[in-house]
Amino acid sequence: MIQEWLWAPWGAIGLVVVSAVIVWAALVVLTRVAGLRSFSKMSGFDFAVTVAIGSLVSTVLLTGSPPLMQGLAGLLALFALQMGAAYARQRSSTVQGWVDNEPVFLMRGQDVLEENLAKTGVTREDLFGKLREANVTRLEEVRAVVLETTGDVSVLHADPSQPAMDPELFEGVAGEPPSR
C-alpha cells in the first residue's frame, strides 16, 4: 500500500512529463496571445479564471481525466472567455458591473466603517492586520482603506501634513472618498 502511494509505473510518469511539456507550451502560447493580464487579479473574474486554469492544468496532468486534448480545449476556452470578458468590460459599463465586484471603503481616514466591514465579511482583526502589513504605525496616518474588486486590501497612508488625495483615485469605490 505504501509503495502504491509513493510510486507509479514509469509509463504513467512519462505521460505526466509529456503532458506537462505540452500544457506548458500551450500556456506560453495562450499567454502570449492573450497578454500578461491572463494571470492578473485585476477583477474577480480574472481571479476565478486563474484558479480554474490552475485546477484544469493539475487535473489534466495528474489524473489523465479529462484527456490531454480535452484539457487543452478547456484552456483555450478559458483564455477565450477571459479575453472576451476583458473586451466587453472595456466597452460596456453594464458588462463591467456584471463581471466585476465593486471596491468598497473599509476606512475613511481614522474612521473604521463598521457597516462596510459587516457587508464584506472583513473583521476588525483582518483590517488591522492589513494596516500592520502596510507599515501603518498610527491610525492618524491612514487616509483610506479599500477592499478591491479582487479581494486585495489597499491601504493608503501618509503623514497627516501631506496634501489631500486626488479624488479621481476613488472613482468607482462604493461610498464617499476621504475628505483629507
Task: Please provide a written account of the structure.
- The chain has 180 residues and is an alpha+beta fold.
- It contains 7 helices and 4 strands, in the order H-H-H-H-H-E-E-H-H-E-E.
- It folds into 2 domains: 2-98, no CATH class; 104-170, 2-Layer Sandwich (CRO Repressor).
- The protein has helices at 2-6, 10-34, 44-63, 68-91, 93-99, 114-120, 124-133, and strands spanning 104-108, 111-112, 142-147, 153-157.
- The protein has a 4-stranded antiparallel beta sheet.
- Strand 1 and strand 2 form a beta hairpin.
- Helix 2 (10-34) runs parallel beside helix 4 (68-91) and helix 3 (44-63) packs antiparallel against helix 4 (68-91).
- The radius of gyration is 22 Å and the shape is elongated.
- The mean pLDDT is 88.
- How large a portion of the residues is in β-strands, by DSSP E? 5-15%
Count helical runs: 7
- Domain module tally: 2
Mean pLDDT, nearest integer? 88
The helix fraction, in percent, is: 40-55%
Largest pleated sheet:
4 strands, antiparallel
Care to count the β-strands? 4
Shape: elongated
Secondary-structure topology with pairs:
Layout (H helix, E strand, L loop, with lengths): L1 H5 L3 H25 L9 H20 L4 H24 L1 H7 L4 E5 L2 E2 L1 H7 L3 H10 L8 E6 L5 E5 L23
Antiparallel strand pairs: 1-2, 1-3, 3-4
Helix pairs in contact: 2-3, 2-4, 3-4, 4-5
Highlighted features:
180 residues, alpha+beta, CRO Repressor, 2 domains
What is this structure, in a nutshell?
The chain is an alpha+beta fold and 180 residues long. It has a four-stranded antiparallel β-sheet with strand order 2-1-3-4. It has helices at residues 2-6, 10-34, 44-63, 68-91, 93-99, 114-120, 124-133; strands at residues 104-108, 111-112, 142-147, 153-157.
